[in-house]
User: What shape does this take?
Amino acid sequence: MSDLLIELFSEEIPARMQARARADLQALITNGLVEAGLTYASVGAFSTPRRLTLSIEGLSGESRPVREERKGPSASAPAAAIEGFLRATGLTLDQLERRADKKGETLYAVIEKPGRAAPAIIAEVLEATIRNFPWPKSMRWGNGSLKWVRPLHAILCILSGDNGTEIVPLTLDGIEASNTTAGHRFLAPARFAVTSFDDYATKLKRAKVVLDSAEREAAIWQGAQNLAFAAGMEIVPDDKLLTEVAGLVEWPVPLMGRIGDAFLSLPPEVLQTSMREHQKFFSVKNPKTGRIEGFVTVANTDPVDHGATILAGNQKVLSARLSDAKFFWENDLRVAKSGMTEWLDGLKSVTFHNKLGSQSDRIARIAALAREIAPLVGADPDLAEQAARLAKADLRSAMVGEFPELQGLMGMYYAREAGLPEPVALAARDHYSPLGPTDTVPTEPVSVAVALADKIDTLTGFWAIDEKPTGSKDPFALRRAALGVIRLVLGGKVRTDLAPLVLLALTRNTIAVGESHGAPTGFSEQTLNDLVGSLTTRANALFSAVREHYQYFRDEISEQIRATIEDPSSRTSDLLTFFHDRLKVFLKDQGIRHDVIDACLAMPGNDDLTLLVKRAEALAAFLKTEDGPNLLAGFKRANTILTQAETKDGVEYSFGADIKFAETDEERALFAALDAAEATITPAMKSEDFATAMEAMAKLRAPIDAFFTAVQVNSDNEIIRRNRLNLLHRIRTICSGVADLTKLEG
Amino acid sequence: MAEASKAPQSFQEIILRLQNYWAAQGCAVLQPYDMEVGAGTFHPATTLRSLGSKPWAAAYVQPSRRPTDGRYGENPNRLQHYYQYQVIIKPSPPDLQDLYLGSLAAIGIDASLHDIRFVEDDWESPTLGAWGLGWEVWCDGMEVSQFTYFQQVGGHDCRPVSGELTYGLERLAMYVLGVDHVMDMPFNDPRSPIPLTYGDIFRQTEEEYSRHNFDGAETAQLLRHFEDAEAECQRLLEFPPLDPKTGKTIIMAHPAYDQTIKASHLFNLLDARGVISVTERQAYIGRVRALAKKCADAFRLTEAGRDAEVTP
Assistant: This one.
């Protein structure tokens, strides 16, 4: 047994790639060694900006010998067959064994692979690992052909055991493996030899290199906390930044500085973003004022003046950066306070998609849709429309130009500074949400209206031009948009049929597609606003008007418009199916089986997602009770018998069963139970009280079971048989009113 | 170097120290290219010479123009005309990082006092059809240089790889000299009989060119010039290699490349005039790239750009 230490020493490895590289190095080397027949006890991988290190303990000294036996053809087989076997095994005829069996003699190839010494295996595995390392981007340098993330300078590869330490012989593109490494670039650049992992880590620390990134992270965090605490301040936690900074330094030395007073009035997110993105500074908050007032930078050196020069330099750079930010903020405020018209005009020249018009066109569609959605979510229509018109204005602000990740948030600040109503400001911030499955869902009604309109417009737009996600390709993040709609609807318990909203938005996007093709539109906002009636009525009316209009220009419109106007339902139902698919994924994560969802999807009104989920939740809960699966079995039995009879007889047994033909108590009991269930279920379903309906349905379990135990449905008496089939039909009708139970498994 | 221990006193002293330092490292110290370029990389000593297998080492100052960055001389560090210091060595030597750090020491940046960091930055020039990997070098949180290992130029793989260093001279000098506004920076030694600041020399030209770039330049004419340069570049490359007058093979790769540089600068001017839309932008960049690629193809056929004979 011995211990293996590998260090790949290079020029600075990008911080963001280090964690993945550690894992890859560990997996590639250990898998390679194990495949070659070595075993090991434990392994650890480490990285600094200049090195990737792997330490393997308890590695076996050589691989186990392997004896491989292959059965070949009969000794009397044709020459060609024997030759083929020789080629496949790489042996000669006299090296084969002959073994007697029932058929005579059979040839066997016995290949013995002796165990190999670890160093040879290590050298092979390491070379293959370096040559095939999965860096996200790699490069060549100098005259070489080797590829690495940045130039690779040295390889340390030693095996240490009871007999001392040996260098694993390996030379790769002129780099010869050794037992030496170097310390910190500036503080201890000399090379030194090491004998084991412990020796390596200890000497590195003496040479101002902390090998373990977790240890560097802890040191940075602790050091930063101490600095802040001593000044009565606190560090704003930022794990991503901490990991990144730990990947930029070998010897972290945190230094704290203050932000100039002139910049303290900037929004805290602007300060934080500018400091994090440009300077990789941590933000320091004053708990008394609640403001960001300072920063912590992490130097990669221990300077002779304790950091005074470094801090002064960083402070200067920060001031220049924040001067820019302040300039942007002040200019933006001027535009915001004058009504944002400059930005809104600017959005006319920003293309959203060349088939769907400009951002400005899109905002007009969203505003119109937000108005429609507003009453459904309890928002004021005027406010929702105003919010939608302004929500994306900040895309043209200088600050968002500089920091795109502040989109929406800046919109909120600018709306507030412009004195706009608070719901308008919040909608600017929140209308992009939810962005992912864990992102917060807005609850303020105006925000919900604009967020829904934004996403439905995006989806119907790309559906109108047939740019749907395929496989793993979803360049316009349409799956995320659909999930966003689902979470907004469910989160706000919004009760609406999606179909008319989708048709309305699809129609408006179809107009946009027409305009982008230069097809005559003939519509004015006037026409659209003149529409009256329910949402469904207006959506249909607008669609009919568009269809009628484009009929005149059949030859001038694109294939996509033709497809939409000729068969709008194929587009809308396709999109609704897309919503349903996303919903299935979403509910599956919440523990609701896909067949339960299918059973509910088969019911009418399935574009009302809140209703759909309410039904699915009740059904899932019902199936978890003891009665659930049993009732399901009874229902299925009844349904099967009934379906077979209906197929055979060619009639539907929906005439209503008559209790006077009942022969047994069990039959009569079932009549009574069905009457009772129906009396509860019908009103419960009307009030969408699925739980009560299913509870009533559960009570049918015992009478149905008893009925099937005691009664033979296919009686010789045809009247009695038909009556019983009609009775089964009642079971089917009552149960099917709740969900399509035939879709359920089990 | 005794001189290096003393802090430099002026902008020109920093340039002179860099010139001396890289001359001492064996670079040919070239002079600026005599055309308007957006960055030192456009100098044929970098773009064209990074192609082919012949060793190369050059250093030079390159005046660079970015018309959109004009601020009428008012911004403390934005200029439409500024200087880059450029070093290009092929093949990239194994100690290039150390050589680079030596150059910082030569201009008075002491690694025991400052925090010098190599931060990931992948370089790409869509107009030159070029990319490389490397870093931006930070000194106390400020970017002072770009450090790139060229992987591809003009669509050709770089074999061997060149190492390229680009110093933004004004920014670097302002930091070393402790100046807050570029126009206040001493250009020559402040103790000279006639001390001159950067502003004495460039404030007026920054004003004039800012006005020119944003309002003065006539766009229809620029557009015509762009088309002319594009056509001329292609025309020059269509000549048969054999020159009938001398009987030699003479491919006009450099004159054609001059037209590429011209087209690129004209595009930058058009961009500053705000007449190029977002969608058109990509198309223009693509047109310049197509020229750069053709020039690179042509240069690879010339004596300087050809791969050296492999000596057994």
In short: Chain A is about 55% helix and 15% strand. Chain A has a mean pLDDT of 91. Chain A touches chain B at residues 11-12, 14-16, 49, 137, 139-143, 149-151, 153, 186, 248-249, 279, 281, 297, 299-301, 303-305, 309-310, 312-314, 316-318, 320, 323, 349-351, 354 (CB under 8 Å). The CA atoms of residues 244 and 384 of chain A lie 41 Å apart.
